[in-house]
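Reading a protein record of the kind used here takes only a little practice. Think of the row as the fold of the chain written in a discrete alphabet. With that in mind, consider the following protein and its fold in token form:
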Amino acid sequence: MAELRYTEVGQVQSIRGSIVVVEGLKSCINGQLVEFGFGTLGTILGFNEKEAYILIIKLTTEIKTGDEVRASLEPFNVPVGNNFIGRIVSPLGDPLDGLGPLKPDDYYPIFPAAPGILERQVLKDPLETGTKVLDAMIPIGLGQRQLVLGNKGTGKTTFITDVVLNQKNTGVICIYCATGKARSQLARVVQLFKDNDAFDYSIIVSAPSSSPPGQQYLSPYVACSIGEYFMKQGKNVFVGFDDFTKHAWCYREISLLLGRPPGRDSYPGDIFYLHSKMIERACVLNEDKGGGSMTFLPIVEILEGDLTAFVPTNLISMTDGQICLDAQMFGEGQRPALELGLSVSRVGTKVQWPIVKNLASPLRLEYLQYKELLKASQLRAGEQSDEAKAKLKSGAILTELLLQDKDTPVPMETLVILFYGFNKQHLHKLTMDEVRQAQIDVLEYTQKNDPDLLKIMRERKKMDEEIEGKLENLWNTYVGKVEAERPEDVVVEEKEDDNDILRDIGRDILDEATAGPKKEEQ
């Protein structure tokens, strides 16, 4: 912490959990840092003519009524700097990884004003997430605020960690902010970052569930301040907040101790301001300010899929879109379990590669139509038309393309190759097992047979005759190779699955029920 200059001395009057009521601080301001002695620190969250209400953020010794409190007129600043990269720190900037002390380059305020409109520029560049369904259908731009909603255990954290893993060698600085998480959950993320060398460009700000409520309350703001240091240097920053639900719970607890009147769901009236003053700090700065950006991906845990709860609706109104995860889809094995009917990006395709936009623009509607057709086909008796069968097969291939294992980000070039193969129906010539294998092999096959194609796509980012010709030739040779190696007893038509068998049984029962009595019974 920076050296404090004390200007006022007060006295502790009462203690309410993590809130201390102090008298004598007549010149105090919100966000001011105070010290109780022996390293115990707090910050002022409110005051009146007689009393100041202080939130304890670091407790090293017991506080008693009558203790002396010393306050500085300086705002609460946190250390920031390049040395934070590769480290795990507390909301106070203290190292938590046992790798020694941190030397800060500067000190930034926790609650600064968000950049003004004239300091910003329009979002135009993509943040490549490595998640196929996002990059294809719900693109995220640098400087965007995209909310992640879902029940407990639906893969929300995976969206953040996959984005972090995909930023390797891109120059994007990643900050993972864990608020109110169990230490075992944080340990899994730490191990994942170590296994994939993500700490070379990442920072973890940790306020676990065992930490004081004051640190949990401050942790997202501190992550923003650390990110702003790099943004003002002209760098691109990604911040993932895991999660805002626990942050809101923590603030509700603090507000009740402060005596603020509760409103809906027992939250205080300023719960909207709590997150909006943080969310608005994400942006792309204009060239005069360095041109850096900060992108936010906050998580909100909902209960039983209820998107209309108080905190989710607040955050939906202040972000640039939402990613909705469905528990039923997750249980059925469709991962990521993204509900395309409810998910949206308000930035849209402005930040998307033009070549991806052209290939993926019709796929969202096709996928949703396939889901409706699949439901109808499972209930409807009678033979399906050839057109319906073709749509069901095409939809099954598209669904397979959108499936993705966790911790395996997919480059944008691979996405282009796969969706070109789908649109031109090269994948329709393969069995489902061969489609799954193609997703694994196609990047390596391209690097071996036409490495220039990958370089050209990243440079131009739009379709032209040369790229289209190379893609067509690539798929013709790949499909030809697969067909030549295919065993003779394997056919492209898939075997009927359990749903087909159940549907046929149901149709037979229905036919018997409606056929009437047999002749010999009449």
